[in-house]
């Protein structure tokens, strides 16, 4: 998994965190799985966006956060455990739900990750992946302004690659809308190349040109910026 340094962690909070109001569709999407009394592992918790969100939305759910980057843990200001997708510092059969938000494309050994997820999940547990998949990227508005960023999609897995690599079965797959920013102007003010895997693939000139396109559109367009990421729900093979 990617380990962000202090500068990148600070940029990540500016560029990638979304207001809870903008994530309301995610609250509705995960509510059937985050029922009272369940224990949720936020694996690759980053700067703690969903640790805080779940604590607000589902106060009767216990959330355990694991993050490999010391700088991301520090930036979060929240209690987090040190670990990664292939080394989860939890006891066997200790969680009901594994949540991984924009993490799976950073996992290089899916088989090892899948083994760890099966180890920590209780019988009947589920894995919830909030992610962009290589073949499903039409809901990302970033590509309108930074078209060259599509080449970074080669580093993102497909849905089938994730399920097969982890050794889990697909229960459901659906796009979930989110209000990424209240306007293009707000989006332009927060975009950071170092904080986004897609934008990191750009040359300085490509990023500058894309930012100019974004600023030009922001001068004439109003309304919120709505993007879509997928919610992929996985269960252990053979589970009903």
Task: Record the SSE blueprint.
Elements: H1 6-16, H2 24-30, E1 39-43, H3 49-57, E2 62-66, H4 70-76, E3 95-101, H5 110-120, E4 121-131, H6 142-145, H7 159-166, E5 168-181, H8 184-190, H9 197-200, H10 204-218, E6 225-236
Parallel strand pairs: 1-2, 1-3, 3-4
Antiparallel strand pairs: 4-6, 5-6
Helix pairs in contact: 1-4, 8-10
Strand order of the largest sheet: 2-1-3-4-6-5
Shape: globular
Q: What do we call the CATH topology?
A: Rossmann fold
**Which radius of gyration do the C-alpha atoms yield?**
18 Å
Instruction: Indicate the CATH class.
Output: Alpha Beta
Structure annotation, total helices: 10
Parts with pLDDT < 50 across at least 5 consecutive residues: none
CATH architecture: 3-Layer(aba) Sandwich
Derived from helix and strand composition plus strand pairing, the structural class reads alpha/beta
Determine the mean pLDDT: 92
Summed up, the domain count is 1
Give the name of the CATH superfamily.
Vaccinia Virus protein VP39
Written account of the structure:
The protein is an alpha/beta fold and 240 residues long. The chain has one domain (6-140, 152-178, 228-236): Rossmann fold (3-Layer(aba) Sandwich). The chain is 35% helix and 22% strand. The chain is built from 10 helices and 6 strands. The chain has helices at residues 6-16, 24-30, 49-57, 70-76, 110-120, 142-145, 159-166, 184-190, 197-200, 204-218, and strands at residues 39-43, 62-66, 95-101, 121-131, 168-181, 225-236. Strands 2-1-3-4-6-5 form a 6-stranded mixed sheet. It starts with 5 loop residues before the first helix and ends with a strand.
């Amino acid at each position: 998994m990617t380990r962000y340094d202090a500068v990148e962690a600070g940029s990540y909070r500016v560029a990638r965190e979304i207001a809870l109001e903008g994530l309301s569709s995610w609250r509705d999407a995960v509510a059937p799985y985050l029922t009272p009394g369940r224990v949720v592992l936020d694996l690759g918790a980053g700067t703690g966006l969903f640790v805080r969100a779940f604590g607000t939305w589902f106060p009767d759910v216990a959330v355990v956060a694991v993050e490999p980057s010391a700088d991301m843990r520090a930036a979060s200001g929240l209690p987090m455990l040190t670990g990664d997708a292939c080394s989860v510092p939890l006891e066997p059969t200790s969680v009901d739900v594994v949540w991984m938000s924009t993490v799976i494309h950073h996992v290089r050994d899916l088989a090892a990750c899948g083994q760890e997820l099966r180890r920590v999940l209780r019988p009947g547990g589920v894995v919830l992946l909030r992610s962009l998949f290589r073949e499903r990227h039409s809901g990302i508005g970033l590509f309108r302004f930074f078209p060259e960023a599509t080449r970074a999609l080669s580093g993102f897995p497909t849905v089938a690659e994730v399920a097969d690599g982890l050794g889990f079965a697909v229960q459901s797959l659906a796009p979930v809308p989110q209000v990424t920013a209240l306007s293009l102007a707000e989006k332009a003010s927060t975009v950071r190349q170092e904080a986004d895997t897609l934008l990191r693939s750009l040359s300085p000139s490509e990023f500058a040109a894309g930012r100019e396109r974004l600023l030009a559109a922001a001068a004439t367009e109003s309304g919120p910026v709505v993007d879509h990421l997928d919610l992929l729900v996985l269960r252990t093979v053979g589970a009903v």
